Amino acid sequence: MKLNHFSAALMLAAALPAFAQDKQEAIALVDKAVVNIQKKGVDEACKEFADPKGGYIQGELYVFVYEANGFMKCHATNPKLNNKDMNQLRDANGKYFSKEMRDLAMSGKTGWVDYVWVNPVSKQLEPKSSYVKKVNDSYFVGVGIYTKK
What we know:
By secondary structure, the chain is α+β, with helices and mostly antiparallel strands. It has a single domain (5-146), classed as 2-Layer Sandwich (Beta-Lactamase), CATH 3.30.450. The protein is built from three helices and six strands, in the order H-H-E-E-E-H-E-E-E. Strand 1 and strand 2 form a beta hairpin. Helix 1 crosses helix 2. The longest helix has 36 residues, at 5-40. The protein is globular and about 35 Å long. It starts with a helix and ends with a strand.
């Protein structure tokens, strides 16, 4: 099927609202997680992040917490990553995305980092973008969205 520019533009416009909504949901989940850590401490908050009924796992959206040194403090859907050094972790394209997330968040800036990761729902490698935010000098929080729609 060949698409003209108009058809392609319509398809893109139809996909944008869902993607924009996913981005807003990811940002809101990060903000909620940061407040939880500040209120309850990282260990108690991490228990809630991993609880499927805790409100921090929402379909493909889930919370992860890194230590400032690049170690994974807690991962909501993959506890095997907890306490692992993520500094040398690369995505399917060889990008050191964990280090990029750490550098961005610990600089005090918030933002998005793009990479390729396994979607826990589809079990496939998919393009992903994670929003990261510094909690304090010890931790930062992230939530990713899969951008393949």
